[in-house]
């Protein structure tokens, strides 16, 4: 891909580029750019929301640039306040370390790790003295920390914001200086943090990074950004069958969005999907195609095809669809037993236990085991009990 | 002095005690308390404003308590934002070190340094790691840093506040934890910083310090707190004659205030002075008494008496007072040459230079030398040129 085409791809896949003209020139110079992406090891499971900037980083990599992946093992212990409604519990060093171990394998399904410079920010922050840090703080106005929209939202909601959280953007900014980033990638809610990196570079007379802001992936609930907290994720470690089933449960309005951000289909194919939907093609058929493309990204074509067949044989036969009763349930997470009782699929709690133990419960194509985690119920979720009983959540 | 009398003295000399009942009990326990006072070596000259908490610390010392004096050689490099209208220039380590050398001698005229635990806060902050500091920040709400009245005043005036300044109270608070302070002394504009020390002790489950807030000494301009920035100081290193002359230039309304805070006269003597003024005694006579008491505090009785005689022989003879012309001058700091020209005492600039070189210029009893510092002109200032020419500023 020529540098011109690559820049066009960047533009089409991002929400905002700062500064756009600067980045265009950097890319046209054909110099290998240092492209930074930071991830905090705050959860052991990465999901397709995390994958959006990772895919973009891979695109840079494929265009011959140097990917610099920062594992925020130091900052992860503070917790990025961006977009959060409450102060994050501070993780311990051993928690972040455990999470980090599971990261590389998951990230390796997207990035080429052999060509990636992986750094931990404890490398520089672990030995940083207070005096050095205060000198950094002197470069940042208190006002801009205070006026962050996420902080103000928390304060309006009567929740506290603590001083250490107001340091997060400073630390992330310094990461950029430490690795000499030419470009930083992040999602839209990271805007202030990434701009801080740009400003710090400029104030210290160092490299001034350009900023590529990427769209969010909306979660399975169709409302909130995909996140572990919202419990609306498709995880990188989900099986092909789970991925397929979960994509099938999204709102029709999100199909093109998932085609672009979850399946990471090329822009022209996404536009094709948009056209077909507009022309009146059955959204369900298009969704099946997107679901297969998502599963294929992470599990290969053969697995994706099998996931599709399994889904169709269970849920898609016309007769079943017609016979499927609707059930109205508050959309939230349920314990498996509780769910069986709520839809009146079991005559008693002990009956429900027996059903669970027998593997009779499936939600959106995923088998629910006894003692397993809670199940998120969404509009359109399909609940199966045994071979023949199906409910669709209204 | 009994512990009860000592507590009564504290109450009479302070503006606020937090918590008063707690401190009363601590003092009644007859345990030797650790009493903390912090000073930042941001200027080589201490003045009578600094002396107020130092005198109070001496009173604690005399009552058998342990004085802990903290030289803020680390925090001095940030600059206490309290009550400041602009971000303070950050001092270098060598500047704070140079200032610190002059401190001990000056402080030694008030405190008994042999019985004082003198600490520098670089002792703990110099080796503090970023991670430890962030753990401290997690104990403080962003809101209370933001809402500081001094910060808000600066922001309203369109001036910036930087993040490192919002750390000052955290650092001062940690000083209290580091030295296990039972009590901290400070002036009223230090209220938030001292309360932060109280809160941090409580949040860390350590000693909870009580707080004794002292009144300000108003400067020679009669308006602002005595401070180097306002240029309205009586310095600890001023000669007896300068101290005397400067006190003679204060507004009559401040006489009792100076009796209490500058001369540190016992409360009953201050009350006596208030009564005499109220009864119509000539304020000038009372002021002479207070001026002598101030000079005596720092230079002994003999020197103070000489300063008084010198002042009276120059300025106080009725005939001169009557013959002294008034001059209206904008009240500000003047270069010596400029001043001679402004009052038309010299026929030309070269004439003014000659007068200066000859030692002909005195303001408020202080000889002004050529190339010396600027001279603050106040309402009531007396300017002498040569032996016989006097002007009083209206």
Protein described:
Two copies of one chain form a homodimer. Chain A is α/β, with parallel strands linked by helices and 394 residues long. The first copy, chain A, has three domains: 3-214, Rossmann fold (3-Layer(aba) Sandwich); 238-316, Tyrosyl-Transfer RNA Synthetase, CATH 1.10.240; 320-394, RNA-binding S4 domain (Structural Genomics Hypothetical 15.5 Kd Protein In mrcA-pckA Intergenic Region, Chain A), CATH 3.10.290.10. Helices cover 47% and strands 13% of the residues of chain A. The first copy, chain A, is built from 17 helices and 13 strands. Chain A has helices at 3-13, 20-28, 48-62, 93-107, 122-125, 130-137, 142-146, 149-156, 168-179, 191-203, 240-248, 255-261, 267-278, 283-316, 318-323, 336-342, 349-357; strands at 16-18, 34-39, 66-71, 116-120, 183-187, 210-214, 326-327, 333-334, 361-363, 366-367, 375-376, 382-385, 389-393. In chain A, the strands form three sheets. Chain A has a six-stranded mixed β-sheet with strand order 1-6-5-2-3-4, with helices on both faces. In chain A, helix 12 (255-261) packs across helix 14. Chain A is globular, with a radius of gyration of 23 Å. The termini of chain A are far apart. In chain A, 44% of the residues are buried.
């Amino acid at each position: 891909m020529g540098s011109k085409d690559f820049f066009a791809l960047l533009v089409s896949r991002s929400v905002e580029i700062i500064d756009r003209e600067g980045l265009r020139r950097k890319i046209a110079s054909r110099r290998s750019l240092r492209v930074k992406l930071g991830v905090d090891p705050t959860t052991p499971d990465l999901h397709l929301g995390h994958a959006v900037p990772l895919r973009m980083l891979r695109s840079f990599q494929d265009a011959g640039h140097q990917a610099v992946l920062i594992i925020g093992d130091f900052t992860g212990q503070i917790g990025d306040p961006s977009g959060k409604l409450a102060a994050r519990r501070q993780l311990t060093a051993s928690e972040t370390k455990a999470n980090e171990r599971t990261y590389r394998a998951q990230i390796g399904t997207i990035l080429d790790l052999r060509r990636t410079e992986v750094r931990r920010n404890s490398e520089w922050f672990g030995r940083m003295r207070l005096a050095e840090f205060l000198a950094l703080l002197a470069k940042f106005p208190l006002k801009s920390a205070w006026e962050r929209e996420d902080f103000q939202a928390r304060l309006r909601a009567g929740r506290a914001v603590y001083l250490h959280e107001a340091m997060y953007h400073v630390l992330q900014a310094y990461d950029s200086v430490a690795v000499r980033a030419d470009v930083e990638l992040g999602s839209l809610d990271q805007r202030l943090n990434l701009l801080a990196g740009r400003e710090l570079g400029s104030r210290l007379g160092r490299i001034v990074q350009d900023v590529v802001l990427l769209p969010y992936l909306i979660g399975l609930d169709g409302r909130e950004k995909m996140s572990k907290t919202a419990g609306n994720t498709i995880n990188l470690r989900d099986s092909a069958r789970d991925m397929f089933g979960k994509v099938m449960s999204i709102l029709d309005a999100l199909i093109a969005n998932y085609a672009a951000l979850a399946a990471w289909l090329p822009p022209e194919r996404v536009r094709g999907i948009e056209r077909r939907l507009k022309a009146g093609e059955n959204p369900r058929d298009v969704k099946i195609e997107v679901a297969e493309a998502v599963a294929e990204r992470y599990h290969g074509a053969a697995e994706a095809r099998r996931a599709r067949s399994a889904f169709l044989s269970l849920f898609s036969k016309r007769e079943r669809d017609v016979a499927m009763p609707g059930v109205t349930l508050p959309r939230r997470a349920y314990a498996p037993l509780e769910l069986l009782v709520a839809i009146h699929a079991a005559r008693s709690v002990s009956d429900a236990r027996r059903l669970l133990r027998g593997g009779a419960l499936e939600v959106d194509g995923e088998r629910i085991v006894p003692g397993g985690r809670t199940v998120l119920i969404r509009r359109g979720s399909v609940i199966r009990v045994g071979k023949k009983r199906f409910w669709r959540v209204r």
